[in-house]
Amino acid sequence: MSTEGPAVEFRDITRTFGATVALNSVSLSIAAGEVHALVGENGAGKSTLGKLLAGIIPPDSGEIMLAGRPEVLGSPRQALSAGVTMIAQELSLVPERSVLENVFLGIEPHRGPWVRRRELRDRFDALVRQSGISVPANALVGSLRIGEQQKVEILRALARDARVIVMDEPTARLSLQETAVLLESVRTLRERGTTIVFVSHFLEEVLQIADTVTIMRDARVVRSGPAAMETKQSLIEAMTGRPLDAMFPPRVYPSSEAPDVLRVESLSRAGHFADVSFNVRAGEIVVLSGLVGSGRSEILQAIYGASPADSGSMYLGGTPFDPKHVRNAIANGLALIPESRKDLGLILGASVADNITLPYLADVERAGLISWRREAAVARTRMTTVGVKAASPQAPVTTLSGGNQQKVLFARSLVRTPVLLLADEPTRGVDVGAKRSIYDLISDLAKEGMGVLVVSSEIEEVMGLAHRIVVMHQGRIAAQFNAQETEESAVISAAFGKLGAAS
Ligand SMILES: Nc1ncnc2c1ncn2[C@@H]1O[C@H](COP(=O)(O)OP(=O)(O)OP(=O)(O)O)[C@@H](O)[C@H]1O
Ligand SMILES: [Mg+2]
Known about the structure:
The protein is α/β, with parallel strands linked by helices.
């Protein structure tokens, strides 16, 4: 194929959505058999470029060449028959079917009206052997972890003979271990000659896996070149168009008299966490660290009344607090930004403003009528605080880029200024610039006296943001650290259950 020119070439592609220019005269060439990363801030146009290639949407103007020939990719089916497919930011599998069925859905070998099961199974085994990507054939897809589901998507693409696979933020929802496995799969695919377009906000990951990196900013390509020539810093500067700021705002510790906002004593929930005790003071940022599955999210869920603890006690501002429902928690001044925001909580048919204010209708209601003007005003204020980029508050939330959809949920959690903000992986899937603005926001909220409890898996974030670090290991607190008096290595050791780490 290399004799036929690059695997993919975009020539002067423009694509708009109403007044928004998503791609502005983009020209870009992707060599056959390489891992080609696309990086850029939220809304830069990365997913749009992927969708054009996968035939999901057409360009307004410009040309796409595959292996040196112009192609019209009018539908995902057409793209697939030209050898291109995309693994989207949201997965598209059928959860109640088996792995085998999902992999061959729509392309099953038939004899007359009957699917040839034996042949299907043989093909599956061959696919697993060739690709080195293995998933149990008969498992129900809905019962698999997200990392495993992603492997099913890859096998599905390979079963359809895809030679170019677009992966849009494939690791955004994976644990460290799952990410390692996925990156290994990508390397295996490259060895087989598959071309991979890899969209990611994890720049370390990009530098590790990519042969070539293309940086996008404001609908244009800034530059495209060998990954070996880039550093994390050079990427960030090109993405944001300005020199690198410090990643984290200066730490402002609460005063020594600051009262406890939250106190948790011997909290337990069978099978999830046991004997957990800690406190969060007014103005304090406490980060729950630890490996995925160590019980951190479950603790947030218990405090938020979503899945209550079995035993132990909690105090909010010194008063006993035993939320049985999320409603109780909200009424007491708690707010939660959930993990995996794509599945939890966005009302996809509704506008940005509705998504921010709907759960808090009482605050914008007047005599039983919703004041649209007031709603828009509340929404607009919160959009500004969080930095949501949208055409207007009335724009459908589905028209926002992935990262901006996440910020909408952040904006929602702040409609009623909470006393305690719970945030589960608050910067997953947002770009570096937006990360800094979320850190600023959290830091400002704390300065105003809010208690903040964050779950984070990014060690850099744990070290940079926290006042205090509570490390979980297998459902129990393994150690607590004052962030200024500890080292990254001590936190990591504690997360892996290796102590000595002092508290
Ligand atoms: N269907 C749509 N309708 C209207 N506007 C859209 C639509 N899809 C994308 N856009 C707009 O086009 C621009 C580019 O969006 P795109 O999804 O390509 O960004 P992205 O680089 O993938 O961002 P992220 O990192 O947040 O996923 C954004 O301003 C977005 O709001
Ligand atoms: Mg995107």
